[in-house]
Design goal:
10 strands; mainly beta; four-stranded antiparallel sheet; single chain
Length: about 90
Amino acid sequence: MGKGDFLYVANGDSGLLILDISDPVHPRRVNNVIFPKKALCVYVLDSIAYVGSDDRDIYIVHLSNLSFHPFGYDEYASIKGFWIEWNRMYVIS
């Protein structure tokens, strides 16, 4: 998912990959965040990235300092996708 000059990629075992795409011909890796399980999908809203994983968690990542904490969804096998609209999160599993 892109936002401004940055692209956020759910990159499996490599976690959340953050790329600077201000020069689209030469994207540059800025950082990445590793989680306990695979990162399967990502949704960015304002300065927060929500990362779905295969351990039934959505990791909430504060992009200002890259700290994160899990938000559990125990009733799902894994999270395939989600979006946020009107302060509600819709989850696809």
